[in-house]
Amino acid sequence: MSEQPSQFKFEVAMSCSGCSGAVERALKKQEGVTNVEISLESQTVLVSAIAPATFEVVKEKIAKTGKEIKKSEIVDQVA
């Protein structure tokens, strides 16, 4: 039985496609990230991930791009 991914939502200050592209590239390199959906218009990043990509690991990856994380939450986490 495969592990169900958790979903994390981040509100990230992104002003252009270069910003969102940097975030997307960083997240897609992270082992365990199964999907990344970025909306430049709403400045949101929705990430689906399994271990070892925990909420804190994903949050740190976004922070390392230099973008400000305005809000973050775990949307759905399977126990």
Automatic annotation (TrEMBL):
PANTHER family: COPPER TRANSPORT PROTEIN ATOX1. Belongs to the ATX1 family. This is HMA domain-containing protein. Residues 5-70 form the HMA domain. The keyword Repeat does not apply. One of its GO terms (biological process) is copper ion transport. Keywords: Chaperone, Copper, Copper transport, Ion transport, Metal-binding, Transport. GO terms for cellular component: cytosol. It holds the Pfam family HMA. GO terms for molecular function: copper chaperone activity; copper ion binding. InterPro entries: Copper_transport_ATOX1-like (IPR051881), Cu-bd (IPR000428), HMA_dom (IPR006121), HMA_dom_sf (IPR036163). CDD domains: HMA. The keyword Metal-binding applies.
